[in-house]
Design goal:
By secondary structure, the chain is of the alpha+beta class. The protein has a single domain, classed as Beta Barrel (OB fold (Dihydrolipoamide Acetyltransferase, E2P)), CATH 2.40.50.
């Protein structure tokens, strides 16, 4: 009887455990500004971790992002230009110095971004 109870418990645990690889976002961010440079595609955006909406010394500069994100970044750029308000996003990034040696410490390469 104990064996049946044990295996039943294991089965129920597996039954309610979703094994699909859904995208879980642990990196919440806020776009707090935009640097358009000399053209819309020449600049980048300023990004904070979590829900911090102030530009400060902990703000990252996303100068570089995956080319697959061009449409998303253009949409976010237009939204920011229109409203001039922070944009809450899910974001994944890596330090830009892993892509470009000797890049400043707060510059990041964005690999995923989506508005919350």
């Amino acid at each position: 009887m104990k064996r049946i109870t044990f295996y039943s418990t294991i089965f129920i645990c597996f039954l309610f455990n979703d094994c699909s690889k859904s995208q879980q976002f642990t990196n919440l961010g806020v776009i707090v500004g935009w640097n358009y440079g000399s053209c819309m595609m020449c600049g980048g955006f300023y990004l904070n971790r979590s829900n911090d909406t102030t530009m400060n010394s902990k703000t990252y500069y996303a100068l570089n992002y995956s080319s697959s994100l061009n449409d998303v970044v253009e949409k976010l750029s237009a939204e920011y230009a229109k409203n001039l308000k922070p944009i809450y996003v899910y974001v994944e990034w890596q330090s830009l110095d892993s892509v470009v040696p000797a890049a400043p410490a707060n510059w990041v390469h964005v690999t995923y971004i989506k508005e919350r």
